[in-house]
Amino acid sequence: MDERCGLVESPYSSEIRATFRNMDDKERAAVIQKAIDEADGVTMAALTKGPSILSGMTDDAISRNLELYQSTHAPDLLNEMESLFELEKMTNTALYIASEAVGYFANPSQSESIDAAEAEANQATESFTRAFSAEP
User: Fold this and answer.
1) Alpha helices in the chain (DSSP H)
2) Nearest residue to 69 via CA among 46, 42, 35
3) Cα gap 130→28, rounded to integer Å
4) What is the pLDDT of residue 113?
5) For the chain, how far is it from start to end, CA to CA, in angstroms?
6) How far is the C-alpha of 44 from the C-alpha of 5, rounded, in Å?
7) Are the C-beta atoms of 118 and 112 separated by less than 8 Å?
């Protein structure tokens, strides 16, 4: 994602962060918007790839600005990443359910209960079949 968006650190990253840190909120917003509009990956990398204390932005602001930049310049990759995260959640849920099922059916008392229920169902089926197949 970083490569596709041109998010690369430069020798000037520390100066970019220092200058940004000393700006007021209006100037900061203008710098970020300009970086997004002009696909300035060097500026965005300087502001979003270092620790938040260096840029003066909160972690939340860094995440929001980075996502806005990525959604502007690589929306297809961002959508693909979101799909992969969703797939990972579904896979983890399926694995959890399978694990619980294995634990349930591997329990000897549950196995005996299942066998007893199966025998009872078979007996009921035989009784039903006999009742309707008996000739009057």
Assistant:
1) 2-5, 13-21, 25-37, 41-48, 52-55, 59-73, 75-106, 108-133
2) 35
3) 85
4) 79
5) 79
6) 10
7) no
Cα–Cα dist 70/131, whole Å:
71
Residue ranges of the chain with per-residue pLDDT less than 70: 134-136
Helix, strand, coil share (%) of the chain residues, nearest 5: 80, 0, 20
Question: Vertex 34, ends 36 and 56: CA angle to 5°?
Answer: 85
Buried b (16+ CB within 10 A) or exposed e, 1-15: ebeebebeeeeebee
Length of the chain equals 136
Measured CA to CA, the distance from residue 44 to residue 16 in angstroms comes to: 10
Residue 95 has what pLDDT? Answer: 93
As a whole-number percent, the residues of the chain with pLDDT over 90 amount to 53
pTM: 0.57
Token pair, residue 89, equals 């959640």
> Cα–Cα distance between 50 and 34 in angstroms, integer?
19
